[in-house]
């Protein structure tokens, strides 16, 4: 099983391969299309029935209980960040594919079918917000909203999926009873403690705050300095102040923060920026702390920015409370690890995953394997082969239990 998984990871890593050993597979790109076609080809060759829903979520169902309308979902995503690692997302899809195809081939009684899923636009690198496909599946967003999301060039997600042939029509017909996702940790806790598996109990809360700093376009040469309403200058000051304030906040609470994306308009080197949009985020185990910290940041910067002659518009302000995952599944994970002889620990996740979105609809669980140096969203992301094999073995053990549950 481990050699099968390693071979598949290598094959998918060739699609969108970057010079630094990572992958670039943005949603709806040619590379995304190629990865989707390879996934479909392999799954169907192993006995799965393929279904694509209206937002491109791919469901490969192995008929382990052909007379049942119920299924256990397992998977993750094949899209990546622009400088993504080769395991982020892919590991969850491919470990589920390996485990599910083996369970199907081995036969035996089961109460539920097994469906391996590739969720659309988990990363949110090209189209925001992230977790798009899984959020449509649970009803948080409707399909029209998701398909209308635009990238920086004005291409919608619906147009991009249609171009690569993965704009489906009908909703997934089976009834999901559970969900399981394997993922690299993307942090350093497991490596630092020497534990082999993380059984995720819940997520941190997060506040995603996207602010537009609004000034006025003017020529960068002759316009008098005192007449300029420079949105870039205001945004640069606000970003610096954001980091200063967050460092002060972190003296009192556990906090992760970033200002990771900036969009300038009209995006010309000869025009003073008239609108600059900055994507801020703050994370803490308690979402109310994220809200309070964000409010203090806004109150602190507004007077100074307005004194520059710049307005502040809130483009998005999204609060994501921490999500609890299924405690029965957490206990099941710890038991399976004990039986397999691998060490495991309950832990939280700092970042978002499809499993968290799906928890709104069904019992959902997330399992972590170590990331070397806790590095992620980076071409140098690495998880050792033995850890990949452990994760796949745990997925198989859990899926065997989950498809046997009655209900």
What does this structure look like?
- The protein is α/β, with parallel strands linked by helices and 407 residues long.
- It has twelve helices and twelve strands.
- The strands form two sheets. The protein has an eight-stranded mixed β-sheet. Strands 8-9-7-10 form a four-stranded antiparallel β-sheet, covered by helices on one side.
- A hairpin with a 5-residue loop joins strand 1 and strand 2.
- It is globular, with a radius of gyration of 23 Å.
Write the layout of secondary structure elements.
Elements: H1 2-13, H2 30-45, E1 49-52, E2 58-62, E3 70-76, H3 90-106, E4 113-118, H4 132-138, H5 143-147, H6 157-163, E5 175-184, H7 189-193, E6 197-203, E7 205-214, H8 231-249, E8 256-265, E9 275-284, H9 287-307, E10 311-320, H10 327-340, E11 344-349, H11 354-358, E12 364-369, H12 385-402
Parallel strand pairs: 3-4, 3-5, 5-12, 6-11
Antiparallel strand pairs: 1-2, 2-4, 6-12, 7-9, 7-10, 8-9
Helix pairs in contact: 1-3, 1-12, 3-12, 8-9, 10-12
Number of strands: 12
Strand order of the largest sheet: 1-2-4-3-5-12-6-11
Total individual domains: 2
Label the structural class: alpha/beta
Q: What is the 3D shape?
A: globular
Q: What would CATH call the class of the largest domain?
A: Alpha Beta
Parts with pLDDT < 50 across at least 5 consecutive residues: none
Question: What's the average pLDDT?
Answer: 97
Rounded radius of gyration (Å): 23 Å
CATH architectural grouping of the largest domain: 3-Layer(aba) Sandwich
Our measurement of the CA-to-CA distance between the termini, rounded to an integer number of angstroms, reads: 29 Å
Query: In percent, how much strand structure appears in the residues?
Result: 15-25%
**What is the CATH superfamily classification of the largest domain?**
Zn peptidases
User: What's the main sheet like?
Assistant: 8 strands, mixed
Number of helices: 12
What string gives the helices and strands in order? HHEEEHEHHHEHEEHEEHEHEHEH
